[in-house]
Design brief:
288 residues; alpha+beta; N-terminal domain of MutM-like DNA repair proteins; Helicase, Ruva Protein, domain 3; binds zinc ion
Length: 288
């Protein structure tokens, strides 16, 4: 569930709490979180104890924590998946159920990774940078908020593609960080039907899609992300953007633009909300 704005908010709220802090000790309570990432649990712990937090970056929905460890620089790549939380709390605070990792910091606090659904993963990589890491990370498309991601670039990437807009926005190789919430909200704000094929958009449509995608992501970051159920930021606070959602979770309610009932349909295999009037399907390009 956490998408680009939520992971970015976690990054922004963790950075001032972690940068310059040292890991005094580390408990791996559920080895699942490290399993399959190429580093044994004991080794994971041994390499990280004594390390200092030196950078916090984000790529798509991945959080990349840079560390200066006794044996050289390391990167800890985290994906929160459905229900993962990464929060800094006083060490004395009760340890909640489903806590997988406890990083004991040198200031009497702990960074804790909790995840009831257990899909989240922590992958340890050597070096301060590079193109290595989990396959999902290596294959990510451009960052939608990057300066270089222009409407023209979006148009080039969409040209001639028959895939539906909903599927395209969810494809992490096409654009990084967008999930179900922000795909639906972007398409509503851009007035585009989620089942529209990418190749049917004209230049004006592409510009509108580009503008609304960036706008909704920025607004959501400004509101600390969207909390539907589990998500909290690095200080344990809920995001406020749920109040600004126009279609996501609003099926059966009146559209804020035209009063028509918001519909829900399965498009590209995912539950999708849209206004059938504000987001009418356009005729295909080249149709008579
Ligand atoms: Zn409407």
């Amino acid at each position: 569930m956490p998408e680009l704005p939520e992971v970015e908010t976690v990054r922004l709220t963790l950075a001032p709490q972690l940068l310059g802090r040292r890991i005094r000790d580390l408990a791996v309570l559920h080895p699942d979180v490290v399993a399959g990432t190429g580093v044994a649990t004991d080794d994971f712990r041994a390499r990280l104890v004594g390390a200092e937090f030196s950078a916090l970056r984000r790529r798509g929905k991945y959080l990349i924590i840079g560390l200066r460890a006794p044996e050289g620089p390391l990167r800890l790549v985290l994906h929160l998946r459905m229900t993962g939380r990464l929060v800094v709390v006083p060490a004395a605070e009760e340890v909640p159920k489903h806590t997988h990792l406890r990083f004991v910091l040198d200031d009497g606090r702990e960074l804790r990774f909790t995840d009831p659904r257990r899909f989240g993963r922590a992958c340890l990589l050597p070096g301060a940078g590079g193109r290595d890491g989990p396959r999902g990370l290596r294959e990510l498309g451009p960052e939608p908020l990057a300066a270089g991601f222009s409407a023209a670039e979006l148009g080039r990437r969409m040209a001639g593609r028959k895939v539906r807009l909903k599927a395209l926005l969810l494809d992490q190789r096409f654009v990084a960080g967008v999930g179900n919430i922000y795909a639906d909200e972007t398409l509503f704000r851009a007035g585009l039907h989620p089942a529209q094929r990418a190749c049917d958009l004209d230049e004006t449509d592409v510009r509108r899609l580009h503008r609304q995608l960036r706008r909704v992501l920025r607004q959501a970051i400004g509101q600390g992300g969207t909390t539907i159920r589990d998500y909290v930021d690095g200080r344990g606070r809920r995001g406020e953007f749920a109040l600004a959602l126009q279609v996501y979770g609003r099926e059966g309610e009146a559209c804020g633009g035209c009063g028509t009932m918001i519909e829900r349909a399965v498009i590209a295999g995912r539950s999708t909300r849209f206004c059938p009037r504000c987001q009418a399907l356009k005729a295909p390009n080249g149709a008579p």
